[in-house]
Amino acid sequence: MRSTVGWQVEGPSPTLRRTRLERRDLRPDDLAVRVDYCGVCHTDLHAVGARHGEAGSAGRPLVPGHEFTGVVTETGPAVTRFTAGDPVAVGNIVDSCGECAMCRAGQENFCHAFPTLTYDGVDRHDGSTTLGGYSREYVVREAFAYPLPAGLDPAAAAPLLCAGITVWEPLHALGVGKGTRVAVAGLGGLGHLAVKIAVALGADTTVVSRSSDKADNARRLGAHGFVVSTAPEQLADARDSFDVVIDTVSAPHDLGPYLRLVAMDGTLSHLGHLGPVTVETTDLLVGRKHLSSAGSGGRPATTAMLDFCAEHGITADIELLPSARVNEALDRLRRNDVRHRFVLDLSDLD
Ligand SMILES: NC(=O)c1ccc[n+]([C@@H]2O[C@H](COP(=O)([O-])OP(=O)(O)OC[C@H]3O[C@@H](n4cnc5c(N)ncnc54)[C@H](OP(=O)(O)O)[C@@H]3O)[C@@H](O)[C@H]2O)c1
Ligand SMILES: [Zn+2]
Ligand SMILES: [Zn+2]
């Protein structure tokens, strides 16, 4: 086993502590990655919160982090696409069965045998719990590592690997392009990248936010419109006016107000807080509307998203913190106090 250092949830406390961790020895198709920058996704907060108080989880380690960039430090003998020293990026899935219809179609994120998650997943070979990117080293199959395109700042590019790909796939699949009317609900980590990507695709893009103080930010990101979600008259004015609504709201919420923004035959893509939702069917019936969802992305889409972002100079707007301030970052994310993504600098773990 290899040894590294990371930030782990231990026992019943939601506080992450600096801990020595083990990584597997390299398999033939593995890379060892020195993790330099890791984004703080709201899913990390959900995971820490769920673990806190979850019965029977005491022995299962939780090291969050599933959008990171770094440098390859070592390669297994069967690795062909990377050599030591290459800049590399890793997202929220690190393996899949490789054989099912979804994997064969390049949608490893929908693998019928469930993709291996970057953290709190189960390794397909040794059954161990995967430990995430809030650590100085990660060992990953090369098939699930991506060359980081030149020109992308490695710290600001890290959030592309979860937030970016999660919004890219539905925007792409729903055919968003020049003139498509897109609304993005929730201007957080996912939302601000959805705005940048939609604008770069040529869409007429509007932000729907409960935070009226984010209007200037929205415009700076390229949005053409801004709707305050807590103002009923603004929601009424925007009724039936978007071909695509991308919902990134991180808390359980009523989909009705967002469905009513969708234009006839348009789609609400619900990407945010996952779990049961109730839908008033007349909100779909009136206007023949579609309700959809998505999550993460397959390998071809991830590569295409990185190329697109490199071509258009798209990275996240980040607040970079030394990893020792990870608990502060999670606290502030919980309070919606971030513009628009925290990224941890892991070099303080050396
Ligand atoms: N589908 C997937 O594969 C996938 C991947 C990554 C993340 N996620 C999920 O997507 C969600 C967003 O993640 P993120 O990292 O972008 O989070 P984030 O940075 O915290 O952004 C979430 C945004 O949602 C809005 N919001 C939060 N609480 C709200 C509430 N109670 N009512 C209305 N709006 C609220 C806020 O925007 P405003 O202030 O603008 O209203 C906030 O900025 C999380 O639930 C995360 O777990 C899903
Ligand atoms: Zn994420
Ligand atoms: Zn599969």
From TrEMBL:
Residue ranges annotated for the Enoyl reductase (ER) domain, each copy included: 11-344
UniProt GO molecular function: oxidoreductase activity
Cofactor(s) named in the record: Zn(2+)
Keyword field: Metal-binding, Oxidoreductase, Zinc
Enzyme class, broadest EC rank: oxidoreductase
SMART domains: PKS_ER (SM00829)
Coiled-coil ranges per UniProt: none
Any matching Pfam family: ADH_N
Catalytic activity, as annotated: a primary alcohol + NADP(+) = an aldehyde + NADPH + H(+)
Entry's EC annotation: 1.1.1.2
Residues passing through the membrane, by range: none
Superkingdom in the source lineage: Bacteria
UniProt keyword Zinc, yes or no: yes
UniProt keyword annotation of Metal-binding present: yes
Family: Belongs to the zinc-containing alcohol dehydrogenase family.
Name under which the protein is recorded: alcohol dehydrogenase (NADP(+))
Organism of this sequence: Streptomyces vulcanius
